[in-house]
Recover the amino acids of this structure.
């Protein structure tokens, strides 16, 4: 009896989810089994139902594997680095001895709220082979200039440096909230037991942060898999497609070349990969958190 | 203060209901869209029954907006269209044929237009647009550095050009170069590839023709420049400001379009203004062809105001209006008559373009062209990164042949849908 009015209350939200989320997702899935393209826009008769051909062709496309390798490299190297930097920054800002904590918190969070297009221009100059600050600084250490954005081997590391700088602030704030919720008497007890600083970090801070860490890891991994804006504004996927990510590849197929059927297939493959990654992380977290 | 635009908007709305007035929707891109209203004022004075509503689209999203407008049944009456996009929209059936209007027009006379530019508006023998302004690529070079290397005049053929580049490279040493060919742009290789006159696609645009002797020799020339380190292995984003770099002598040759004239005039100091010049593009054996680029004016098939839209196109095609358009935007006019003006005759930088425009060639008129050109760029970029002075002649020619075959394979794959559609149309 109480169920029916409840449906009435949630139905506006359900209808919105169905219309703006479910229907487009189902339509995209259907689209991924066709060769819908610019000719299909002209005349629906030009659309062929091709079954799993898009997926088969996708796995035969070398650029897709390049893009997947680039994205994986970005996630595997970039995400842990980003989490480590975020945690480090959070610990520094949270330290009892730190002064002007408000100022530092704001300064370290600032890159997150800046526009990626605007800071990309600045970073392009920092990475510039002949005039860039980075190579200038490396020169003091006696290191030869690196062609950051022009050398296919260095473009992705440069992208990781840029992305970590741009994004670590968000995770820092989440870690900060986690750190502040750790009761002070735990540290007190640890000190009485004779634990020094690194032991306190290892046996008090890290275990207490575990739920936060899980959340941050999943969010960062999902976010880093969706690498797009950085190569789009910095390198346009180049040089020699070394910064083409899966999402960038999908964008080019879909919105530059208008191969919407093929692009939908890319989207579903990326979704499957991210889902698998998240499930794996959850499973690992469950195993580790078991007493 | 806020009420003034609202009142103006209301007035514009009311104009639609006024039985005597027709309002044309005109979409124009970038700077043209910003400045063309200055020409429209006079048109509206001469044609009291027609109002023109100019919508400015940014170039980066214009292509997407045109396609969504077509799908959403919201196309304007007329628009400016980059002439490489024209085959695509014509294939969609979005554009109205203009053959009858041109045949009856006292103003738009095809013979007065540069032939290569006019052709870009024809798809399968039907005319879908009228050229508005032209754009092509040619040589910008450092006159003083070329003279120091022993060349009094700019090169007019590939062998002389190569000699000049080698002489410059010998003088400037390892840290500087003879030419800039940004690896993230396809226009440079495309211009060279069009020069032989052999078509880039064969069988009526069904398959790639990049293994033809003509394209392969262009690719070999292009790759050779990188192999001899006459050009830096660099992208546009790395050089970031090619105009200043030409001024600094980082390179002495630069293939670019007409808008670079303004950039050089503005960016280089007064003392350097006599050091740079323009020259037509050298070809395999003598002055060569270049790309027929630019924008056209098109009428949309769904427009109920096609007659009024054509009146506006005729007005914008008048030589004196084209000259004023040049004064406003620096866009070069597509008609020979429009060039008969002291303003062009006394400008040596622009004269090279006048010369080049008699030798421009269209790219293949298929909707897939831009994608094929992008694949051509990706494959040639990879090849350019594989060669060095240590690469032997045999290895180099193997790399060139493999790259040409690879471009053909990719073009054939992209054109699969087109082959299917043409076969089906043939069967009907």
């Amino acid at each position: 009896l109480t169920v029916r009015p409840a449906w009435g209350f949630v139905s506006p939200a359900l209808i919105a989810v169905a219309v703006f989320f479910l229907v487009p997702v189902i339509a995209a899935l259907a689209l991924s089994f066709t060769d819908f393209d610019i000719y299909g826009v002209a005349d629906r008769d030009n659309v062929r139902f091709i079954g799993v051909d898009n997926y088969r062709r996708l796995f035969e496309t070398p650029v897709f594997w390049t893009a997947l390798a680039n994205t994986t490299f970005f996630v595997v190297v970039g995400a842990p680095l980003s989490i480590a930097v975020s945690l480090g920054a959070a610990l520094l800002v949270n330290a009892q001895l730190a002064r002007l904590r408000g100022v530092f918190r704001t300064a370290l969070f600032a890159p997150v709220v800046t526009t990626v297009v605007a800071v990309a221009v600045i970073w392009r100059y920092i990475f510039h082979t002949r005039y860039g600050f980075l190579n200038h600084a490396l020169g003091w250490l006696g290191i030869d200039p690196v062609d950051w954005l022009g050398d296919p081997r260095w473009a992705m590391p440069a992208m990781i440096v840029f992305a970590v700088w741009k994004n670590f602030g968000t995770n820092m704030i989440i870690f900060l909230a986690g750190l502040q919720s750790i009761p002070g008497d735990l540290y007190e007890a640890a000190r009485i037991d004779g634990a020094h600083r690194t032991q306190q970090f290892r046996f008090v801070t890290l275990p207490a942060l575990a739920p936060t860490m899980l959340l941050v890891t999943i969010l960062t991994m999902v976010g880093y898999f969706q690498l797009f804006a950085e190569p789009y504004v910095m390198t346009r996927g180049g040089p020699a497609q070394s910064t083409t990510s899966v999402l960038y590849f999908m964008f080019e197929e879909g919105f530059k070349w208008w191969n919407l059927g093929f692009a939908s297939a890319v989207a579903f493959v990326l979704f499957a990969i991210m889902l698998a990654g998240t499930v794996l992380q959850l499973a690992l977290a469950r195993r580790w958190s078991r007493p | 203060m806020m009420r003034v635009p609202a009142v103006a908007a209301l007035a514009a709305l009311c104009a639609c209901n006024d039985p005597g007035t027709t309002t044309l929707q005109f979409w124009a891109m970038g700077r043209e869209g910003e400045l063309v209203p200055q020409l429209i004022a006079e048109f509206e004075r001469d044609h009291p029954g027609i109002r023109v509503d100019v919508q400015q689209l940014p170039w980066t999203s214009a292509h997407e907006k045109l396609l969504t407008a077509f799908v959403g049944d919201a196309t304007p009456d007329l628009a400016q269209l980059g002439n490489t996009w024209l085959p695509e929209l014509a294939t969609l059936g979005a554009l109205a044929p203009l053959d009858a209007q041109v045949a009856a027009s006292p103003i738009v006379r095809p013979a007065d237009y540069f032939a290569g530019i006019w052709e870009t508006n024809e798809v399968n023998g039907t005319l879908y647009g009228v050229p508005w302004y032209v754009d092509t690529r040619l040589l910008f070079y450092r006159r003083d550095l070329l003279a120091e290397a022993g060349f009094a005049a700019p090169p007019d053929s590939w062998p002389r050009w190569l000699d000049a580049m080698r002489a410059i490279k010998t003088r400037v040493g390892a840290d500087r170069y003879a030419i800039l060919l940004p690896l993230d742009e396809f226009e440079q290789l495309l211009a060279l590839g069009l020069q032989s006159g052999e078509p880039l696609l064969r069988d009526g645009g069904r398959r790639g023709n990049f293994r033809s002797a003509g394209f392969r020799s262009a690719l070999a020339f292009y790759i050779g420049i990188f192999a001899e380190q006459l050009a830096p292995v660099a992208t546009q984003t790395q050089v970031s400001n090619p105009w200043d770099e030409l001024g600094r002598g980082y390179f002495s040759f630069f293939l670019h379009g007409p808008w670079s004239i303004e950039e050089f005039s503005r960016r280089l100091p007064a003392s350097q203004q006599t050091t740079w010049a323009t020259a037509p593009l050298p070809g395999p054996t003598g002055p060569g062809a270049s790309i027929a680029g630019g924008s056209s004016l098109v009428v949309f098939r769904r427009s109920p105001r096609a007659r009024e839209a054509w009146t506006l196109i005729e007005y914008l095609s008048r030589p004196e209006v084209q000259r004023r358009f040049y004064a406003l935007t620096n866009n070069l006019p597509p008609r020979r008559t429009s060039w008969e003006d002291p303003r062009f005759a006394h400008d040596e930088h622009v004269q090279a373009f006048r010369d080049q425009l008699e030798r421009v060639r269209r790219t293949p008129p298929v909707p897939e062209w831009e994608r094929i050109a992008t694949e051509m760029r990706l494959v040639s970029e990879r090849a350019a990164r594989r060669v060095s002075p240590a690469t032997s002649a045999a290895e180099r020619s193997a790399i060139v042949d493999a790259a040409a075959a690879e471009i053909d394979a990719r073009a054939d794959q992209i054109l699969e849908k087109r082959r299917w559609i043409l076969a089906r149309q043939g069967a009907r």
